[in-house]
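dumping this here before i forget
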Amino acid sequence: MKKDALLLLCFFAFFLSCKDKVNDEKIVYIQKKDTLNIDVAEIKNLIKLQKNANYIDYRPDDPYLPTEKDLLVLMPFVEWGLKNTGYKILPNGEFENRIKELVKNNKIKKYDAFTTIFANTLDRTTNTLNEHEFDFDLTDNQFVINKYNFMIPMLFLRDVIKVNKDDSYSIAIPHNIIARNKYLFNDSKADLDWLLVNDQDFLKSLVNSLGYDKEPRINKLLLEDYYEMYNDSQPTEKQFIGTVFFTKDLNNNFCIRQGLVDYVKNNTTVNDNRFIYALSYYSFALYEKNLSEKFGSESPFKMFNDVEKAHIASVIASIEVPAIAKYKSENPRLWSNAGSALYDLLVEHPEIEDIIVKNNYFGIKNMKQVLEDTINEIDVDKIKRGEDF
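structure:
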């Protein structure tokens, strides 16, 4: 009886050992040197060269500058690794639609095998973008791999493949690359959960650099992070949050991240006006040069024309004015501003009204009512003060 129990225990231990090996193989795959028909000598040489590339604080005197070749060599290994971790490659048409949803206003550069999505503006010039296209550290550029239908940043070869002395090799895809692609293209909520804990910078760059604003949980992460960044500053410093809502792309197109706007609209409450008040302060920087100077190259005073400024002011007012009407009487201590930003802007810049009307209220459903209510409020206050119209 004891012998049978001992045999059963040994078998169970062997089973668990085999199970662990199977799980390990989902991450690391040991290959013979001809498995993917690669040039091992070329791989070794590139790994050696990449050790001398610029990266974070490492700045060699004569750095290796990565090129298109570094990405092309990398691609088959990532594709093979993704497939063997359960990634489902979408059909071309569906993948292209996902990319269009993900990337809206970025400058791109097409190659036969991949498309570069420029995600960091640097100094916004084409020469600089091209010079740093394949850098490992200076940009958040993403590369859409057309043949295999996945997306990656620039990766060091050493982070994906290890070549052994006998020219066999192992492939180990970083888990964040797996999770990113499974979330974006396989709709994996479990991988989004993992990314929200382990890869927050990437998720924030999806919104901030690519304009992806469809996921409320990512929007919350980004906005909470930005707000906390200025939590100990003067109240008006929180106006910097407006830079992620309203911007210009590399083609100088005006962009509104509507998903972030909707998040603020849906999450402003009687006890939480943080984001709408931050946007309220931002709206003043649109029209006051002195306020706007602290933004540097992102100065809303300089970046946007008069119509775009009026559009931004309207978007903010379409949330703030109804929120004040709804919540101020319930919590006057928190909702302490005397009036809305639109009220103050119209007093100082009455021409804004004509711009809003001429542009059909910018298609904002409640903006006609918001504008009329604000004008009426201004007129009533003038009467109280005995002012002429």
